[in-house]
Amino acid sequence: MSAVIGPGMFVRIHYTLRDSRGNVLESTQGEEPHGLVWGTGAVVPGLEMGLEGARVGEVLTVTVPPEDAYGLRNDSDLFEVDLEEFPDPANVVVGQEFSAEGDDGTTLAMRVVEVHDDHALVDANHPLAGETLNFQVRVVEVRAATDDEKLAAEAEARGATAPDGAAS
Questions:
Q1: Would you say residue 164 has pLDDT above 50?
Q2: Backbone dihedral region of 39: left (phi > 0), alpha (psi from -120 to 50 degrees) or beta?
Q3: Tens-place pLDDT, residues 72-114
Q4: Rounded Cα gap, residues 90 and 75, in angstroms
Q5: The domain over range 75-123 is classified in CATH as 3.20.20.80
Q6: What pTM did the predictor assign?
Q7: Which one of 55, 116, 125, 159 counts the least CB within 10 Å of its CB?
Q8: The domain at 9-70+128-157 falls in which architecture?
Q9: Are 156 and 42 in contact (CB under 8 A)?
């Protein structure tokens, strides 16, 4: 009997991710399959739920609503930043991505959405916040994760670098 996707399993998948309009956002086609330890937060919760129990060879379509992906867009995550607060104020452009420290000390990823004479409007929402995500997934491998793979996945979940030789 073949292994099934579940917590603590090492899983390799090929996938194509589309937005709600059918635009391809990401795909592993023509590349190595994506490998991860299941249950460590390496994929959005809705995909994790949708693939739980799947076996090698299965092809599944999983639709993930925003609440189970990157959340809903939050207008309070749009705010103005004085251009003088940027390292190179004269070269701030729309689409520029940067990180800043939040009030609670966490690192926030942001991108510039408008540039004005003295300030920029920045968005701290994840770029896919508010999007329904559509995954086409083919399960390539399912097996028990090694201790090293589990340690690497835990380190990655905490934002640390995986030790050399660990699966990515």
A1: no
A2: left
A3: 999 999 999 999 999 899 999 999 998 888 778 778 889 999 9
A4: 27
A5: no
A6: 0.78
A7: 159
A8: Roll (3.10)
A9: yes
